[in-house]
Amino acid sequence: MARKKLHRPIAAMAKKIREYRALKNRPRDSQRFALDYETMRRPLTQKRLPVRAWEDVRNENRLFALLCRLPRFGLGRTVTRKSWLWAYDEPCYWVITKVKADYTAENMDHGRAWGYLTFRGKTEEEVREIDKVMYHDWRMVPKHEEEAFKKFTPVPEETIRYLPYPPLLRAMILAQWQKEGKPIMEEPVIDLEKVMASPLRRAKKKAAGTPV
Of these four, 40, 149, 166, 186, which has the most CB atoms within 10 Å of its CB? Predict the structure, then answer.
């Protein structure tokens, strides 16, 4: 017989107090992501940034370094990232809808932000928290350029219907056709529509079951 677990209210309360103190004493983002620009080290952890990030750290801005200069922390403004501008031709940006600044930070240049993400021309319907706000590659889109920046005409995606068989399988199919005496008038290819439809048909047949 299993031993009944005793309820220990004092131990439970002590555990909650320890968790609360750990939460209260944890370093803020302004302490975690503080940076000595001469040595390129984090004062809290003494970790050094990768050498390839030094140029961006000196020339680019963190998200809140931009938002703290604007009225209402830039609500409604559009921000993007340098890495997106270099990597994609389609527009990628965030539209700021909510900001929670860390008022204990110097210049209030740390905090959390939320918004609508548009990535490669596709806009998400739900608001979510903006990630990587501490990266030094954020850029503010000027108001008079927002309309042109967001303008995007989606290119219709090309759908591939047929694919060639692998060389060994192709040779086996051609040998089978030759053995059966079939004329080889065209190259054997894989019909993707039939391949994708087969599992659906099997699932429907399995769901319908066999009449008794």
Answer: 40
